[in-house]
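Folding Query — how this chain folds
Tokens — whole-number codes for backbone shape
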Amino acid sequence: MLKNMKITLIEKRQDDSWFDLSLRQLRAGEVHFYRVNDLLTGKWLFKVCLDKENNKTIVKALKCPPGRLHSQLEGATMLFQKSINDDLFYDVISLTHADGEGRLRREALNSIESVPPVIRENFVVKTYEEATGKKLPQNHLVTLSKKDDEKEVITLFLLERAWTLPQEERQQEEKETENRTKEEPAENGTLNLLRLIKKLEKTSITDIHDATLEELGIQRDAVDSLLVDLEAKGKIKRLDDGYVKAVR
């Protein structure tokens, strides 16, 4: 699923500001904005704040997918700080879950077995003491990520804050999108898909599936049916290795 997470830099600001909760003060520095399309949870907007003076990076969710759970993550932040390895930043792993009343809670982890496999398999996991050289009463676990890799820290935000939540809201949203697609005239869907293929020129069917879901809200099965229709009309041509292109 991680390979289907599209993280796109949309703006850089050399001089901006943010409030650092840990320092309880307003900070100034370079800020980057990212748009994220996560097939599991939905569309996000993030602000990444670079505090180079204090060797810290703060990730803040500015806009979240719809739903009562995701809405509670709007404005949430995650802190990444310098480890004893100068090239790596650490983040104390704390997973978000919903309590019986639907309010979000966070829980720091102390055992490797409690860390979700997707985090263990894609990031280095260490104890707090191994990452910082300092001891805590409870030796929490942390992730280590490259200090300049902003896509990694955004990914970790989603894995720890959003992927741990029930996905009923996202599934309902996808169902409604699928129903709208079925209700649209087939000719409209065909024309929209053809325009997209022409824009992409030669492209793989896998990329078409991703692009149509993101740009047109059309599900995979519907895309496959439209591709068959376009091919039958001589509008597209299938190439080797799962590629297609529009016929000029």
About this structure: The chain has a mean pLDDT of 83. The helical segments are 117-122, 128-132, 150-162, 168-183, 186-200, 205-215, 220-232. The CA atoms of residues 5 and 221 lie 20 Å apart.
